[in-house]
Design goal:
homodimer; Rossmann fold; N-(1-d-carboxylethyl)-l-norvaline Dehydrogenase, domain 2; alpha/beta; metal-binding (chains A, B)
Chain lengths: 489, 489
């Protein structure tokens, strides 16, 4: 796909890695004075929905845009989020909170951040309420996947763009607030221009992304976005992570560790030191800080986990690309009234985790080399699968690594697995519930038994690790933002 | 759906339970002399494929039909099964073994028993090779599901029928052989008539089923069959069973049992005494043989497992009905060359199982009341889901209970989980791999934590058990066949 673009408002640069050049735009608060130009022609910007993304984006955009554009939140009249939106300063009295279809009809640009299930159910009414020439904004490509499935299309007389922060809503807001002190702190985002009837779609998208606080913004397509986004959250970002740490916890206990130590060497190790080192020094950084015995353990764990991860990532990608996963989410949405989503953190492991977090001494969390090998092995499998399927470097690095270590894992580190998974979109929550057990079983049935019989580990698999192109991609991406730790209470 | 039918060759009876009457035909070797009339107009019967069903059905039909109809096996020229078919007495020399398309072209009736994946890939060539007026036989409705997906249809000038044994191929053959000594021993089957251009479709289907040794044959439709068949094998028959025993094994170990005792109280208990009692005295029989403390444990385990099972069965049914599951199987088939299906019995639990089986004292296998409550709770959830979706009683009883206790579980009891799962169709093998971990996680995360906090068990859920209509259905079905134990080496 051709990812180049022209912007009249911002400064385009290129990320050059290996054989590719990918155009991007850096963000920062010093660019906020360009936002009026980017949003030229937009008097009212409607943000529809008050989930994790909706609440974060509405507040960030209001704070960034100031008086230039009126940011109005639209909700269903009986929405349970109405009061929290009021508490955040959006009120019917000053015209910044209203019924969703009223807001849609009155906005020049509409950012639609309702749940995917609600999107599938109400998109026809939403389309009908959009005036010709409106810019419709999405924060991921799910709706396109759904339209493909049902054989429908976007109205021809509107812009369709997307800005997709590569992190959960909570961190989109938290890092934006940190950006007051550290210019450029934020969550990277991709953008897509699917239809451009106004001729202003690119700059509106870039303005939206800069306004959210994205350190840098790269281009993708709606389809490439939802393929990588749904696959990534089913993979290492949520489903894979959950299955990995459950399988490791059990393994360490079976090897004789106490419950608490098993939790420290599995979940704590991933969300603490492993994620922190990856964020700072990449995956290679983790490997390089191990001693030679630990390097051997890492390499073996990597070599048995990578193939299992690769197979599952191919299955996940096939399921997403075929439409199965989108259809599955829509069907699940219809069952939720009768079968509400269950809790995932009631089993013993996560009760142990609560205790471990309460007693935590941060410097004493082990960086377990076996755990690191499994986690990074599955992470690299996801990277290789997305490379094989033709995704741009930036998308791969953000969907497989940066979003994990800079947005999601710190939340799990602070609050546990349910806090990570259940602060994501319903689509991600369902996907994580579906795929976590698959990763767990596959590792337990097919990876760990091989490493326990040392002779049979195919260590050649690890040979691809050290010289992998993704390390350079991560280094370049890391250079795009200041180094800040995510603040999680 | 109207399930009544007319037969000129066999004797129709009605199963009457509660408010319904379902027509059926009893089988038995004393009816083999009617097979020539049932197959009137069929000189050559081609059986295509030599998987578990193909090999069992070809041999049973050859043995039952004698000289009346020539049974010819058709395989791809380079099939690895060629030699085993020869060993079973099908040879190119006497014209009973040939290249599959030659056999299809030369047959008046063609029973297509190749894998579902192969069916999806080659059905166009198969259709092209069928002469007008041929009777095409299937052993389940998968192909209809696939045709629906790709928007294709069966040729209009052929019969399309199905006979679907409610048991794995190995037991279709084993019980047929037992039928020499005990008339009527066999595996029940459903039949469907999807197209009838010859006017002989019903009797050909019934003749086929009687020739396989089915104790009784009930009618369904191709669509109802594949919906219940795919759902059942993903549910209690294979996927659910696997997830249930894994979760229970872990639970019992965590409660302090030795590995061996944990295996005895989980897997051994289900595949041994629980299945045997259900086979003889139904699910009620299990409950009634418990003492009052055990009854309480059973009721609590049932009450927490049933809701989790019901939710998963609704999800499974939605996935099957929407086409997701069929598409998923076709996609998985395409990945198998690169990612062969992995082993499911390498983890510690199944190594323990081998030891336990080797040391087994059959009379000392515990009938664990908690295990029984979980297994029967999920089984009843499957029954209630299939009832809600409108399936006939016979189909529900066979797909949820009889196939489990009379065909599948005895194989697992003899040889372990992989022997059960991996002797099923590829569709079932993939489905079991996909859904077993879901049952495991759902029970571990949401059922067992509730029972561990006694106050919160909603024991009302158990209230529906004792007077459930399915108990009478099972009693009537059990009366259709002699009582024989399945012989498994």
């Amino acid at each position: 796909m051709d990812l180049d673009f022209d912007t009249k408002v911002f400064d385009k640069e290129y990320i050059a890695v290996a054989d590719r050049q990918e155009p991007i735009v850096r963000g920062g608060r010093h660019l906020f004075d360009r936002l009026p130009a980017a949003f030229d022609g937009v008097r009212q910007l409607g943000v529809i929905g008050w989930g994790p993304q909706g609440s974060a984006q509405a507040q960030n955009l209001r704070d960034s845009l100031g008086d230039a554009v009126r940011v109005v939140v639209g909700l269903r009249r009986n929405s349970t989020s109405w009061d929290t939106a009021v508490q955040a300063g959006f009120t019917p009295e000053d015209g910044t909170l209203g019924e969703m279809f009223d807001v849609i009809r009155g906005s020049d640009m509409v950012i639609l951040l309702i749940s995917d299930g609600a999107m599938a159910e109400t998109y026809r009414e939403v389309f009908a309420a959009l005036r010709p020439g409106t810019t419709l904004g999405l924060s991921h490509g799910f709706l396109l996947g759904h339209l493909d499935l049902v054989g429908d299309e976007f109205p021809a007389d509107i812009d369709v763009i997307a800005v997709c922060p590569k992190g959960m809503g909570a961190s989109v807001r938290a890092l934006y607030l940190q950006g007051r002190d550290v210019n450029g702190a934020g969550i990277n985002a991709s953008f897509a221009v699917h239809q451009d009837v106004t001729g202003r779609a690119v700059d509106r998208a870039l303005g939206w992304s800069v306004g959210l606080g994205a350190p840098y913004t790269f281009r993708t397509t709606l389809r490439s976005e939802y393929l990588s986004d749904l696959s990534g959250e089913r993979g290492i970002l949520a489903g894979g992570l959950h299955g990995i740490v459950e399988s490791l916890y059990r393994r360490f206990r079976d090897q004789g560790m106490s419950d608490e130590d098993a939790f420290r060497h599995s979940a704590e190790s991933v969300t603490g030191p492993i994620s922190r080192v990856i964020s700072r020094d990449g995956m290679l950084g983790v490997y390089r800080m191990l001693n030679s015995d630990e390097k051997q353990v890492f390499a073996e764990a990597y070599s048995v986990s990578y193939p299992v991860g690769l197979e599952l990532m191919h299955e996940i990608y096939d399921e997403v690309r075929s439409g199965d996963e989108v259809r599955s989410v829509v069907l699940a949405g219809k069952r939720l009234a009768r079968f509400p989503m269950g809790k995932i953190d009631q089993a013993d492991m996560w009760r142990v985790g609560q205790k471990v977090r309460a007693d935590r001494v941060p410097d004493e969390i082990p960086l377990d080399p076996f755990t690191a090998g499994v986690f990074i092995g599955v992470m690299m499998a996801q990277i290789d699968a997305l490379l094989e399927f033709g995704h741009p470097y930036s998308e791969i690095a953000n969907e497989s690594v940066i979003e994990a270590v800079d947005s999601l894992n710190p939340y799990m580190h602070a609050r546990g697995i349910a806090y990570l998974v259940d602060n994501c979109s319903i689509t991600a929550r369902l996907g994580a519930r579906k795929w976590a057990p698959r990763f767990d079983y596959a590792l337990t049935q097919r990876a760990y038994p091989v490493v326990d019989d040392e002779q049979s580990v195919d260590i050649e698999i690890f040979g691809g690790f050290e010289n992998h192109v993704v390390h350079e991609v991560l280094r370049v991406c890391a250079g795009m933002r200041p180094s800040v730790d995510i603040f999680v209470e």
